[in-house]
Amino acid sequence: MSDPILSIRGLRKQYGSGTEALKAVDLDIRRGEIFALLGPNGAGKTTLISIICGIVKPSGGEVLVDGKDWQRNFREVRKRIGLVPQELTMDLFEPLLSTVSFSRELFGRRPDPARIEQILKELSLWDKRKTILKELSGGMKRRVMIAKALAHDPDILFLDEPTAGVDVELRRDMWNMVRRLREMGTTIILTTHYIEEAEEMADRVGVINKGELILVEEKAELMKKLGRKILHLQLTEPLATVPPALAQWSPQLADDGSTLVYEFDAKAERTGIPSLLTAMRDAGIAFKDLDTKQSSLEDIFVGLIHEKKAAA
After folding, report:
1. Mean local confidence (pLDDT), 29-44
2. Which residue among 135, 151, 167 closes a domain?
3. In a domain, 86, yes or no
4. Which segments cross the bilayer (predicted)?
5. What is the CATH number of the domain that holds 274?
6. Which of 41, 76, 159, 276 could, after both became Cys, cross-link 190 (CB 3.0–4.6 A)?
7. What pLDDT does residue 139 have?
8. CB-based contact 114:104 (threshold 8 Å)
9. What angle do CA 224, 225, 226 make, to 5 degrees?
10. pLDDT of residue 23
């Protein structure tokens, strides 16, 4: 495997109040991958990105971009990074074309009108190029933020909740562009609440909670390892408790006792389902319907955070 394009070691952030926003995070990002960072609000996702992009000062640790320390080589390193922040931060009285062009030159790149035109066309912004930013809709302003981040052709692109609160069309355009950028070799790190997007787009997934990186895993491996199946049995008559005759399968009762829930490994040689159904019949427990559901990345994510809380 080639050297990581981004290497984070012992990165910490503690505020004057004593709050630890990041707890010694270690993470390597591979060249050309899409890495999804998942976590609830306040987990430390934006703090991590803000430190790497030079917006927030860390309390300790280091970041290497292609082996170079990002603090000692800040100008050179910052040229290689693009950021689409959560908040809209623009001069609203500036025309669209000039604000995106200025972003390119701000990072020391030579003017390239053809490249700016290409970016604006890909984001459906070319027709609005002469429009003052304050006259654009919220979705269009979000597109401009993306264009500004791409204007200097960064090697690493950070997308901090990029599609939160945007329309379906922009979300689709956004992910088409992400795929094209990855094909061109751009490394993409995104934070998102839309877990289905991480499930669809990411090569690897990291889970952060309360400033601590609790898991980094290949998405496919994560799904294989933790993506179990759940059997729901809708009972004819509700149960007050799980009968002792079913204890070895450890099923749970839901919906006020009217549904029996059994979790199993779909890839196992023996799922336990036939023997469970036999035991139910022998115990006189009838059911009127059943269905199975594959665990999603969201189920896994919620489960990991609950496990961490229980262990604390």
Report:
1. 90
2. 151
3. no
4. none
5. 3.30.70
6. 159
7. 81
8. no
9. 100
10. 93
User: Using one digit for the tens of pLDDT, what is the confidence trace for 243-288?
Assistant: 999 999 999 998 889 999 998 876 667 788 889 999 999 999 999 9
Q: Which residues does 213 contact at the CB level (< 8 Å), separation at least 6?
A: 25, 26, 27, 206, 207
Shared domain for 272 and 136, answered yes or no, is: no
Residue type, 124: S
Per-residue DSSP letters for 110-163? PP-HHHHHHHHHHTT-GGGTTSBGGGS-HHHHHHHHHHHHHTT--SEEEEESTT
Tokens, residue 253: 């009762």
Shared domain check, 268 and 164: no
Q: Which two tokens stand for residue 224?
A: 């294989």
The domain of 69 spans 1-80+155-224+296-312
Report d(CA 191, CA 162) in Å as an integer.
8
SS3 254: strand
pTM: 0.75
Q: For the segment 130-154, what is each residue's pLDDT rounded down to a tens digit?
A: 999 899 988 888 889 889 999 999 9
* Number of domains making up the chain: 3
Residue 307, pLDDT above cutoff 80: no
